[in-house]
Specification:
- The chain is mainly alpha-helical.
- The chain folds into 2 domains: about 60 residues, Orthogonal Bundle (Arc Repressor Mutant, subunit A); about 110 residues, Up-down Bundle (Four Helix Bundle (Hemerythrin (Met), subunit A)), CATH 1.20.120.
- It contains 10 helices and 2 strands; from the N terminus they run H-H-H-E-E-H-H-H-H-H-H-H.
- The protein has a two-stranded antiparallel sheet with strand order 1-2.
- Strand 1 and strand 2 form a beta hairpin.
- Helix 5 packs antiparallel against helix 10, helix 6 runs antiparallel to helix 7 and helix 6 packs antiparallel against helix 9.
- The two termini are about 25 Å apart.
- It comes from Geobacillus genomosp. 3.
- One of its GO terms (molecular function) is DNA-binding transcription factor activity.
- Keywords: DNA-binding, Transcription, Transcription regulation.
- This is GntR family transcriptional regulator.
Length: about 200
Amino acid sequence: MYAETLRHIHRLVVEDGLVPGDRLPSERELAERLGVGRSSVREALRALEFLGLIETRRGEGTYLCEVGGHQLIELLAMFLLENERAKADVAEATWLIERLLLELACLRCSEEALERLEKTVHQKPTDFASFFQAVAEGAGNYLLTRIWRALFGFASAFASDRPLADSFYDQLLAAVRKRDPAQAVAVWEAHRPSPLSKQN
């Protein structure tokens, strides 16, 4: 139901001519105008805020955000709105970019970036998001890192990965230390199965 509400909110924004910085109607007004329950409006607004398309200011209301020059977050949002099966595609893209960043980190990781990665791995239990942020920084590709952040945050909104064993992080750290992308990919694929086998 909330996906349909997202479409309605998007149409309302277009019809009202709202631009970044403008205030959205209240939750109650949106529910009345769209003819849906407030819980559906609340879920839809939460999704839009997570995507960075709106911002809630305490005591003031909800405002449209400026999403940036390359419009990546808006593109992802609209992709989901137009295609309910987009979640699987986001999972695929996230997995592929993570694997690529890992390979690049093996080849490019500076001593400073390696120290940050080691520090993250030694904090038990290791947090995957923090670990991979350190990997992405070590990869040295700003655009890929930005794409990964958006994809990972988006994928995390509708799926939660099970915790990974400490051995996963220890083995990946060893591969990065050795600057061995083949070993890193082998560890990666052994612990994080590929989502590329989905049916079209």
